[in-house]
Amino acid sequence: MRKKKVGAIAIKGFALLVVLGTAYQAITQDATTPYPNMAPIEQYLMGRTAEIALARTAAPESISRDAEVLILGRHGFETGVKGKNGFVCIVERSWTSAPDAEFWNPKVRTPICYNPGAAHSYLPRTIKRTDLVLAGRTKAQTDETIVAAVNTKELPVIETGAMCYMLSKQGYGGDSIKHWPPHLMFYFSQTDPAIWGANLPGSPILASSDASEHLTEFVVAVQRWSDGSENR
Amino acid sequence: MKRNQTHKMFLVAFTFAATLIAAQPAAAQDPKQPYPTMAAVDQYLMDRDAEITLARSAAPDAISRNASVIVLTRHGYETAVQGTNGWVCWVGRGWMAMFDHPEFWNPKVRAADCLNPPAARSVLPYAYKRTELILAGRSKLEVIAAMKAAIDKKELPALEQGTVSYMMSKASYLTDSGDHNGPHLMFFQTDKNDATWGANLTNSPVLSVNYWCLSADLYPQLKTFPPMSVFLVVVDKWSDGTVAAMHQE
Fold first, then answer.
1. pLDDT digits (tens, 9 = 90+) for B33-59
2. How far is CA B14 from CA B66, B108, B167, B172, B218, in A?
3. Residues B178-194, mean pLDDT to the nearest whole number
4. Looking at residues B163-175, what average pLDDT do you find?
5. How close does chain B come to A227, measured CA to CA in Å?
6. Can you give the three-state secondary structure of B144-171, one letter per residue?
7. What is the mean pLDDT of residues B187-197?
8. Do the chains contact at B236 and A221, CB–CB below 8 Å?
């Protein structure tokens, strides 16, 4: 639910920002579900070396070279490389990074590098959601469990200054938007998006708030990919 | 290369880091101190209506049209327009840079800025105080001492969470360097550690500077000030929606 909202708003926003009109049209037509069920697990997995390399493309090399890297195994994310700067890079799959219509799209690969604050307080949600999905839970069951874990504080409160980098030129955002423009995301415990002037005409900030998960995500598009090249 | 130019431009503009200061183009008598003293107050003032318009241009109209606007007078900032959305737009002058910034007294600086409600409540009071002291003729050392006293007496507030400011005006003049301007957002944090956001690293879109000083060498008293870092994220459009050209020097 949360990801659907974030995805839809972000895609709509980025569609406006980068003239991805066709992507927006596609996301608004999500009444059909091209991926109704989970595909065989193998379709979500990657080669270890390739996954580490892809995860690291989410942030400039100056950050990701010293980051921990998690890779997806058959039962969840596991450590691929130990880091030393507190950042954690992963390649998210569809169930945490695509809108509902593509919840089971096995092609989705979304590189993200979390800063230490987000690695402590946001990443556990992604890890838990992934564990549940790979254990065979439905989307509804997964959502319900995550919300409960947030409410009982089994999952931590979002730390101040939690943010992530999504600057990879690579990856696959999904069929509706194949590639995300480079952007940063900032995480807050539930906050009114208006506090940052988000989602207003002309604002460079997009946001989504999910009361059930006590979470607000702000998205700021930036000009360059992680390798320093311009997004043109 | 362009990335480095953008980085450099922002580092020397308005709020910035010492290592690149020496690279500024030569100006006036001393390239490191092109503006050694305050200019006549008149040189910092603007026509009231022009200042309101410039202040509002810092953010998209959807934000700034309902914001309060403050303007500079001979004795400090005063409210020119009472807003309804909690935001405050204003035009910063050179002295809002760090105390040891070479353009601290640059009378050409016009930094249009719209602060969100938490920043208006917890950052702007520092600007008011600093400006009033400066316009009262206090020296930098006196300003620093007075601000420290105000902080210690809790006359100035602690920084709130969730602060952001928009600096997306096409008409700002932030620095003598480069293109003089560039659209960006600023986030104020009490965290002193640039690494928490990956700031100032090669190819990072996030820049970070100390709010108070480039270094504490000239004004060691600033070491006792509450830590405040400013994180800058360059955006690609001006407040009117037009695409910003890449910065060139």
1. 789 999 999 999 999 999 999 999 999
2. 26, 12, 11, 11, 18
3. 88
4. 97
5. 7
6. HHHHHHHHHCCCCCCCCCCCCEEECCCC
7. 83
8. yes
| Count of structural domains, chain B | 1
Q: Share the mean pLDDT of chain B.
A: 87
Q: Which of residues 45-74 of B touch A (CB under 8 A)?
A: 59-63
Q: Does the beta-carbon distance from A222 to B185 stay under 8 Å?
A: no
CA B86 to chain centre: 20
With respect to residue B29, please indicate whether it lies within any of the assigned structural domains: yes
pLDDT digits (tens, 9 = 90+) for B87-140: 999 999 999 999 999 999 999 999 999 999 999 999 999 999 999 999 999 999
Residues 18-37 on B with a CB inside 8 Å of A are none
Q: Is residue B245 part of a domain?
A: no
Nearest residue of chain A to residue B64 (CA atoms): A197
Question: B240 lies in a domain?
Answer: no
Task: Inform me whether the pLDDT recorded for B26 exceeds 60.
Answer: no
Is B192 inside any structural domain? yes
Q: Do B61 and A202 touch (CB under 8 A)?
A: yes
The minimum CA-CA distance between A140 and chain B, rounded to whole Å, is 32
Q: Are B178 and B63 in contact (CB under 8 A)?
A: no
Chain A residues closer than 8 Å to B233 by CB: 184, 220, 222
Burial status of residue B82 (CB atoms within 10 A of its CB: 0-12, 13-18, 19 or more): exposed
- What is the C-alpha separation between B180 and B22, in angstroms, rounded? 17
Rounded to whole angstroms, how far apart are CA atoms B146 and B138?
9
Domain residue ranges in chain A: 2-221
pTM score:
0.87
Which range of residues forms the domain containing residue B223?
Answer: 2-234
Interacting residues of B123 by C-beta distance below 8 A, sequence separation 6+: B115, B159, B163, B165, B188
B59 vs A contacts (CB less than 8 Å)? 197, 203
**Which token pair is A9?**
């708003």
ipTM: 0.84
Per CB-CB distance under 8 Å, the chain B contacts of A191 are 162
